[in-house]
Amino acid sequence: MKPFAILALAATALTLTACGENLGKGQQLNVVSGHIQMGATDDRPAVGYFKVEGGPVPVELVAVTADLAQRVEMHESVKENGVVTMKPLLRAAVPAKGTMEFRQGGKHLMIWGINGAAVRAGKLPMAFVFTNNNNERILFDMVIKPAAGAEGAAMDHGAMGHDAEKAAPDAAKK
Ligand SMILES: [Cu+2]
Q: Which fold has domain 27-173?
């Protein structure tokens, strides 16, 4: 091996090490967990929940997409005058070094038309789009769980779903 080739290799190794060290320092923006609960019947949307860990600066989640689903929407359940309704959610703040969660009873994803192959594989690859770095995309495989039983959240949510949305004037506007 010629001397300059060895130098080049050494330089590459140094670069990689430096990169790894930077990643180790401080928390990076990341999607750390998430799952999807299928709707009780095929015409019901599935619901998605996940957790995001914030990086060094505050950002906003502005979209979640999936190539293997027909439609994905971000929603938030809100209680108004004692009635729980859902509203479309356009952005969700992720605090620096904090956490942001989509969970039952609050922010959630609604997912229509998940590809059958993804359902059989038990996971749906999703892309989470944030406002930092010119819309950084973070990919995460959401574990797909079957519909909950009669007492389950997915069924309740599905039953609440469309009627509640039609009834919510804000949701109807956009
Ligand atoms: Cu919803």
A: Immunoglobulin-like (2.60.40)
| Long-range CB contacts for residues 29-35, cutoff 8 Å, separation at least 24 | 29/53, 29/54, 29/55, 29/59, 29/94, 29/130, 29/132, 29/136, 29/138, 30/55, 30/138, 31/128, 31/138, 31/140, 34/102, 34/126, 34/140, 34/142, 34/143, 35/142, 35/143, 35/144, 35/145
pLDDT band at 163 (very low <50, low <70, confident <90, very high): very low
pLDDT exceeds cutoff 90 at 136: no
Q: Which residues surround ligand 1, an ion (CB under 5 A)?
A: 75, 86, 110
CA of 162 to the centre of ligand 1 (A): 8
Q: How far is the CA of 62 from the centre of ligand 1 (A)?
A: 16
Distance 131 CA to ligand 1 centre (A): 23
Residue 139 alpha carbon to ligand 1 centre in Å = 22
For residue 116, report the distance from its CA to the centre of ligand 1, in Å. 21
What integer is the mean pLDDT of 76-94?
A: 94
> What is the average per-residue pLDDT within 21-38?
82
